[in-house]
Design brief:
The protein is an alpha/beta fold. The chain contains 20 helices and 18 strands. The protein is 47% helix and 16% strand. Bound molecules: phosphoenolpyruvate (PEP) and magnesium ion.
Length: 535
């Protein structure tokens, strides 16, 4: 028996045989050619084929997971047409008079080398995207296709896995992932969480493990090769325990969330797609506390029209029947980018033109979204929420735009709902002036992810600072308390939709602070219900 300690990517326990996967090593030779035109036309044909494959993968991602994951292939489609990448490939073919597959391979290696050594986790994680896209084009040029096929449910062990390799695996044959590479924020990690597959990274995977029995303990980031009978038995027990816990939690479905003094707490779910709305209903969420509309925009190749947005919001609202759906206006900027918006590079994007700032500088875009949201308001219990508010003036400006939208809809005789308008409290400024802001809006929802980032001046994306990023910091907790008290003094409600709302070690304290609503990932709803109701 050998025990390896790696990084936790996704929880859960898997026991089964290893399938070692190694990307086929092809020999790509540099070949001089007189016929450069032919190399270019071969390259164009290969890119067309790659684009078709990506379209198909995007469709499957939508069906099997959600819009966020489909967005990965969306960004691969954009990368396929990337100007720098394509110029570099064309230069090599033209200037050196060589074959297309060599030019693609060498360009891919150079770009990966450039990104790989960057400290920034975001950029180093993008290496897997570049590798994926260049390999796909080479496959098409050389007429081969990489495959990851298991004949029986297996633990996939690989040096690294690209997002499309991850998604191409048959889920019924997938027990767990063990990889050497892959940061917590890599796309492959995001996919394994969306697929709910136990996953561990940071393990030096070896070919001779193939077909040997192993255990993946995703809760603790542990991989055990050829476990002895005693270890196996104890992990089988832990697996049964996980299943038992799931069943026990199931009993909390349909139970009202009641906290100290018999006070009712609204336990809502966060969503970024219609699939997430289904998951929210499946986990008995009492409403949607945060519909991150930017994920819907990110899943689309161009800016969705008013009608396209309206259709999605209406479906979300109708699925939730009379339960509340809080739709947040676009929070683009910082780590969330839309290729078709071509926002310029900023030196300090987290402090830059994001969310409400971006929307107020593009009022027509915001008004289009507001029209869609207010129209969806005619179909159920809808509220609109504005992100990243830092001043009263911003609230007044956005409310003026909302009034204009309602007047226009009324003039056109288009049905709309006179819905509640709330704001996110996620800048320290907003928390500090929450007594003034409370007089302007119908509710507050506290975004603890950004509130922690801005209160502590720590980039939430930087995993190297994880030891300092502390949402339990007294400063953050005081800002939350201040916001809740100011909301109540003005007669409005205050909830939390940041990750802190699903931190089981603190949710009871948050309820004791008087928080009226918690909005969490669908899979956490029942766990949070159990934690807040515990005596
Ligand atoms: C937050 O900042 O806590 C929040 C919920 O918004 P997002 O994570 O989308 O920035
Ligand atoms: Mg936020």
């Amino acid at each position: 028996m050998e025990i390896f300690k790696g990084n936790k990517i996704n929880g859960g326990i898997a026991i089964g045989n290893v399938l070692f996967y190694s990307r086929e090593q092809r020999k790509i030779v540099r070949r001089r050619t007189e016929n450069i035109k032919e190399e270019f036309s071969k390259l164009e044909a290969a890119k067309r084929e790659a684009a078709l494959q990506l379209e198909e993968l995007r469709r499957r991602a939508y069906e099997q997971t959600d819009a966020r994951n489909a967005q990965i292939f969306e960004s691969h489609l954009v990368l396929l047409e990337d100007y720098d990448l394509n110029t570099a490939i064309a230069d090599i073919i033209k200037n050196q008079g060589v074959n297309a597959e060599y030019a693609v391979a060498i360009t891919g290696d150079r770009f990966v080398a450039r990104f790989e050594n960057m400290e920034d986790e975001y950029f180093s994680a993008r290496c897997e995207d570049i590798r994926d896209i260049t390999e796909r084009v080479i496959d098409a040029l050389m007429g081969g296709a990489r495959r990851l096929e298991a004949s029986e449910p297996s633990i996939i062990a690989a040096h690294d896995l690209t997002p499309s390799e991850t998604l191409r695996t048959d889920r019924t044959k997938l027990l767990a992932f063990v990889t050497q590479k892959g940061s917590v924020s890599s796309h492959t990690a995001i996919l394994s969480r969306a697929m709910n597959i136990p996953a561990v990274s940071g393990i030096e995977v070896r070919a001779e493990w193939d077909e040997r029995l192993a255990i993946v303990d995703g809760h603790n980031g542990i991989f055990i090769l050829e476990p002895d009978e005693e270890t196996l038995e104890s992990y089988r027990g832990l697996q049964r325990n996980d299943e038992h816990q799931e069943r026990l939690l199931g009993r909390l479905k349909g139970v009202k969330t009641v906290v100290g003094n018999g006070r009712r707490l609204n336990l809502y779910a966060n969503a970024g797609s219609l699939e997430d709305i289904d998951a929210a209903l499946g986990n008995d969420a009492e409403g949607i506390g945060l519909l991150r509309t930017e994920f819907i925009f990110m899943g689309s190749a161009q800016m969705p029209t008013e009608q396209q947005q309206f259709e999605i919001y209406r479906k979300a609202v109708q699925k939730m029947a009379d339960k509340k759906v809080i739709i947040r206006t676009l929070d683009i900027g910082a780590d969330k980018q839309l290729p078709y918006m071509a926002l310029g590079r900023e030196d300090n994007p987290a402090m830059g033109c994001r969310a409400i700032r971006l929307c107020l500088t593009r009022p027509e875009m915001l008004k289009t979204q507001l029209r869609a949201i207010f129209r969806a308001g005619a179909y159920g219990n809808v509220a609109v929420m504005y992100p990243m508010i830092a001043s009263v003036e911003e609230v007044r400006r956005v409310k003026r735009l909302a009034s204009e939208v309602k007047e226009e809809l009324a003039r056109e005789n288009t049905a709309y709902g006179n819905i509640e308008q709330g704001i996110m409290i996620e800048t320290p400024a907003a928390a500090i002036i929450s007594d003034i802001l409370a007089k302007e809006v119908d509710f507050f929802s506290i975004g603890t992810n950004d509130l922690t980032q801005y209160a502590l001046a720590i980039d939430r994306q930087n995993s190297g600072l994880a030891q300092f990023f502390n949402p339990h910091h007294e400063a953050v907790l005081r800002l939350i308390k201040m916001t809740v008290d100011n909301a109540h003094a003005a007669g409005i409600w205050a909830g939390i939709c940041g990750e802190l709302a699903s931190d089981l070690s603190i949710v009871k304290d948050l309820a004791d602070m008087g928080v009226d609503e918690l909005s969490v990932a669908a899979g956490m709803v029942l766990r949070v219900r159990k934690a807040v109701m515990e005596k």
